[in-house]
Every structure is written in structure tokens, then in C-alpha cells.
Amino acid sequence: MSRIREVNGGGAQVVEAYERRSIERRSGEIQSKAGSGNGSIIAPRLSIDESLLIDAKSLFIGSKIGEGAHGKVYEGRFGERIVAIKVLHRGSTSDERSVLENRFAREVNMMSKVKHENLVKFIGACKDPLMAIVTELLPGMSLRKFLFSIRPNKLELPLALSFALDIARAMECLHANGIIHRDLKPDNLLLTADQKSVKLADFGLAREETVTEMMTAETGTYRWMAPEVNAFFSFSYAV
């Protein structure tokens, strides 16, 4: 619900209505799939290749640099390397833990699958005693913070076009590998140290098109969704 609180005034009512419709739609899908019995679903448990895992003892977690709905991001160290460490919530019930562990495994598998200069580089992951994803640490800020920092000025056209190309190349790489990001927004675009390039981060809401070719509006950031998503139409990577 944290994203709903970000919207002020009458807009909050719109988001709350959207949230209710999304939950109702998802609940209906779950019930229709559950069939007889107690209505619970045992989702296939996703696994993570052992080669992608690193020992949590080799990590040093420093100060918090970000926080989202699914976890917190810290500056840290892996060996001699300065890294970003995203620590994800585990959940408070067995069902919630199962869902979050599967989401974690899916994010790790997708991040390890793609490599591109405009995607944040995946380094490794930990399963125990904490669920964490380790990536390169970009010394620059998010595109959102950068745009606020230059106000009242605007991006110069050459830099705006350069950023647009970076984003397009990152998305092209994901789509070529059957991945739909589903949460493209300035907060998830991180600037490099020279502030001349951006990299796409946060695969927490991403899905593989090979698993679900047509998506529905189950999640995302309301203010950055396409009209097709807000209208609860099915959609693919083209959106």
C-alpha cells in the first residue's frame, strides 16, 4: 500500500479502486485454478543454480541507500568490491514465504540470464540466512533524482536522446531474452558516474514471456502504467 500513499488528493481514490480491482481479479484467477479442496494452491517451487549463489559470510552490509515494497537496498562489500545488496522480505506466513521465495528465485534467474551495458550487472545471490541479490553499485543517482536536481532546467536534447537510446537498448535486450520488465520508471533507471548513461535495474516485477505470453495488470507502478494495463486488458512486451 506504500505506493497508494504517494498519490495525493482525489488521485488516491483512483489508485485504491485500481488496487481493489487488481486484487479481486487475482483472487478470482486463484479460485478458478484451485478447484476442489480447501482452495489453496501449491505453486511449483523455483530453483536457483548453485553457481549463482554466494556465501553470505563474504558480504559486508553497510548503510541503507534505498527501500521499496519488496525489500531494502544497502551499500556493501563483496570481497574487495563495493556492491549494492538488495535484501528482500521473507514474509510472515508459510504461503507468503513460498510466494516471496519464488519471486526471489525468478528475479535471480532472470538477472543472471541477461548481460548488457545498459542493465545493472548481476554478481550473485544469497538464500540463507537472508534472501539477497548482489549487483554492481552505480555511484550516480536515479534518473528521477537527477531530473529533480537540475530543476528548473531541463535535460539538454543530446543527453535526453542518449538516455532514451540507453533505455531502448536495455529493453530490447530483455525482450530478445523473453523478459518483460513491467516496472520501467525513472526510479529504476540509474545513472553512471559520469551522468552520461543510464542502466535499468530492479527485476522484482519482471516476468518471462515464455511462461506467460499475455500479461494482466497484477502489479506495477500506477503512474507509469500504459493505458492497456490500467484498463485490465491483456498485454505483451509490446506495451
Please tell me about this protein's structure.
With 239 residues, this protein is an alpha+beta fold. It is built from six helices and nine strands, in the order ααβββαββααββββα. The protein has three domains: 41 residues; 93 residues, Phosphorylase Kinase, domain 1; 101 residues, Transferase(Phosphotransferase) domain 1 (Transferase(Phosphotransferase), domain 1). A hairpin with a 5-residue loop joins strand 4 and strand 5. The two termini are 25 Å apart.
Low-confidence stretches: 1-41, 211-217
Number of domains: 3
Tell me the series of helices and strands, N- to C-terminal: HHEEEHEEHHEEEEH
Major sheet attributes: 5 strands, antiparallel
CATH superfamily of the largest domain: Transferase(Phosphotransferase) domain 1
**Helix content estimate:** 25-40%
CATH class of the largest domain: Mainly Alpha
Number of strands: 9
Family: Belongs to the protein kinase superfamily.
Keywords: ATP-binding, Kinase, Nucleotide-binding, Serine/threonine-protein kinase, Transferase
GO molecular function: ATP binding; protein serine/threonine kinase activity
Pfam families: PK_Tyr_Ser-Thr (PF07714)
